[in-house]
Amino acid sequence: MAIYIALLRGINVGGKNIIKMAELRSTFEQMGLLRVQTYIQSGNVLFESDEDEESLRKRIELEIDAVFHISLAVILRTADELNFIAANCPFSADEIAEAETLSDAESLYVAFLPKEPSIESLARLEIYQTENDQFRARGREVYLLYWHSILKSKLANNLPKLDVPATVRNWKTLSKLVTLANAMEDSARL
């Protein structure tokens, strides 16, 4: 059994695609997924399953569409993958600290993708990179560092140029998901 983290794209944002976390948790449990828990309203679900990522992702997307009438992308990562992502941030501590001193909001984010973006799509995104909006791609993740605000960023607004669905989480959320996933793994070993 693996601990998975499902990252749902585009729910509970701006009053659209509203899903209550209790209902989402119940839906995952009714699908036969184990030890389901949610974290904050942006669509983060931790659970246990022995299914492979691709069939599990498709099944979750179909079930959300059937139950909530919302068609959305679900990005899955295992607890091990999430730990690796958190441990391998390509931005230096100095870069992050500098961005945080200039920003009144979160500065470090990760865009999670279902597959690695093409070199061509990364080149299209690179046009929007500035000294205040930086990205670094690593596999199926794109790390984003903003010196001002993600809300005002042309880089953030052009993530669709990657030609694959992306769902973005700030570093604080990623860190909490890592903590929750590790606690689930620890309790499974007992």
UniProtKB/TrEMBL annotation:
SUPFAM superfamilies: SP0830-like. Pfam families: DUF1697. Gene3D superfamilies: SP0830-like domains (3.30.70.1280). PANTHER family: BLL4334 PROTEIN, DUF1697 DOMAIN-CONTAINING PROTEIN. This is Uncharacterized protein (DUF1697 family). It comes from Paenibacillus aceris.
